[in-house]
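Page 37, continued from 36.
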């Protein structure tokens, strides 16, 4: 809610933060068995989970940019983590998000 020290520490304690070398993760939404992600313009968005090999978790473009992705949760998913990669090879990544 704020940029003061206590607000930042509370967000970290609650896991409401992400790391970045440049790209921006604007929003991650869990709703009705889906994960939706909005980012700054990037080349690739990965919605990682603990389910084995799900090709629908990777969204990429060779030309232009994408700024959103969606993944339908599988029965075996217990968590997700978002990664995105920009055209300069810089990454942003979220913390693990419990989906149970």
């Amino acid at each position: 809610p704020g940029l003061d020290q206590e607000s930042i520490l509370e967000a970290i304690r609650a896991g409401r933060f992400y790391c970045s070398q440049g790209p921006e993760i604007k929003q991650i939404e869990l709703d009705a068995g889906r994960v939706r992600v909005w980012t700054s313009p990037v080349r690739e968005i990965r919605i990682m989970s603990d389910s084995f090999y799900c090709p629908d978790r990777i969204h990429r473009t060779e030309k232009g940019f994408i700024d959103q992705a969606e993944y339908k949760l599988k029965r075996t998913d217990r968590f997700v983590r978002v990664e995105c990669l920009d055209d300069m090879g810089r990454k942003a990544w979220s913390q693990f998000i419990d989906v149970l």
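The first strand starts at residue 18 and ends at 20. Flag for discussion at group meeting. The chain has a mean pLDDT of 92.
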